[in-house]
Amino acid sequence: MESKAQRIWEVVVQICIPFFTILGFLLVSLKQPGYGVISSLASQPFWLYSSYRSWKKADQLGMFINSILATIIFTFGVINYWFI
Question: How many CA atoms lie within 13 A of 19 on its CB side?
Fold first, then answer.
């Protein structure tokens, strides 16, 4: 049985995934790629958590692998845009 805190966390995750992901797409489309990769990277902990749970509950490994690779790519994007 899930606790109230766990249910609240699940709602937060389901709100943050589309918010940060869509904001990242929007910022890149508005010619703000530096902020777009930061927003997209901010969404990745939520993607990783959600896709990990999907992998464990429903054997959906592909999305978890995709989330790991996207995290690596967005990390390189932040480093490339902001630090190099």
Answer: 9
54: number of Cβ within 10 Å:
16
Q: Is 51 exposed, middle or buried (0-12, 13-18, 19+ CB in 10 A)?
A: buried
User: Would you list the domain boundaries of the chain?
Assistant: 13-83
**50 SS3 class:** helix
Rounded Cα–Cα distance for residues 53 and 83 (Å): 33
In degrees and rounded to multiples of 5, residue 3 shows phi and psi of -80, 170
Place of tokens 């609240």: 8
Asked if 32 and 24 count as a contact pair (C-beta separation under 8 A), the reply is no
Give 53-63 pLDDT, tens digit per residue: 999 999 989 99
Q: What pTM, to 2 d.p., does this model score?
A: 0.90
How far is the C-alpha of 46 from the C-alpha of 13, rounded, in Å? 6
